Amino acid sequence: MKLFDMRPPYAAVPERKLGSRLDRIRSLLGLSSASLRCLTAGGSTPTVQSGSSLVLKGAALNFERRARTVRLPLVLANLYAHETLAPDQLRFADGSPVGFLAFLPLGGNAHSPSHLLTLGDKTPRSLGTANQLAMIALEAFHPGQIESGGPASFDVSDDLILIDQATASAGLGIWQCHLAENALRWSSGVYDLFGIERGAPLSRDRTVSHYSDTSRAAMEESRARAIEARGEFTMDAEIIRADGQKRWMRLSAGVQLTNGRPERLFGTKQDITEDRLLIDRMRHLAETDAMTGLANRARLQARLDRPQGISALLLVDLDGFKAINDTYGHAFGDACLREMAQRLRACCVDVPLVGRLGGDEFAVVLHAEHGPEYAERLARQIVEVMQLPFEYHGAKVQLGASVGLAFRLEEAGEELFRQADQALYAAKAEGRGTSRSFSRAGC
Question: pLDDT (tens digit, 9 = 90+) per residue, 202-229?
Fold first, then answer.
């Protein structure tokens, strides 16, 4: 695959046709932004832009300058882009994190200028997927095809021939659907994704049957909305392959118009199962207390920051834990914390969120279906279970727990936590080993 043997000269190609070609590539790869600039000694010509505007600043601008200087592709990917990034990490100008960004120098010799193809998207990508998308874009961008009279409007069949094998190897496929007959055409990558023999007859009914119920409903809604608005959409969908395997794919689609009327949908379908598993694993690690396996303080705080749907909060503090650490050591103390966490989880089978705040403090979040009687009964049960003896390496100890309970009316999460903490303080003042509920008239 010759990635850098691009055909001269770009300058001879009308800007309208370059823009059309850029639209085709961006749509095929399911990206939100693409631009092409002719680089000269004095800077660069105005951008030929496709999709949303991509304004670079800070670190992103420095990366672009580096790609222009060394004349080598620079591809950046961020699997965890949906989470908050550190201030020095790469971002778009509007403050949104970058999921995928590629600066791709093209061609350039004594007779023709070089160009910079810039691709961007906020959707997280693995580094392997990002590099594959960049390679496909480089191979697909042949301005010589336009110069020789190739079509200026989108015609997916040309690109199916050009990049069929490249996309299939990247777990990416190209598809189109003629709306009048719902007639489908797939590249090899889509057949592989669905586990269907390449070249087998296609029907939309069969394809849709591979979607999970939730993904099918979301896809049909997005499809209808895009056709009505003459627009585009991108979504992640769960599918069940012909062999029964469950996979996740990223579906991108755009609408082609003829005389102002939608004629067909086209786009890409990409296997993102491994990326999604890795993202889920990273999210789990970021939200889980390593000691106990419960939700950590950050996840609890995030839930309290969105208090809608919360009916009550229980704060649990172990009684006598410091003496355990001082007497038996931290290994014994850690084992004790894990045991108490397991007991707490066993009590809270139907509870949406159980977590460790830190040290020997825990929290339980209840939702609307859990009424006051359930919450108070659960608080008493926790006190009873925590009092059972615990044995570790021949030593037997007995702890206890105090529980503070607060019911939410319209309070913010911070206020609900304060109320539960006040109730917990009252329980400890009563001699520990008991539970107390916050009262707006006083505990």
Answer: 999 999 999 999 999 999 999 999 999 9
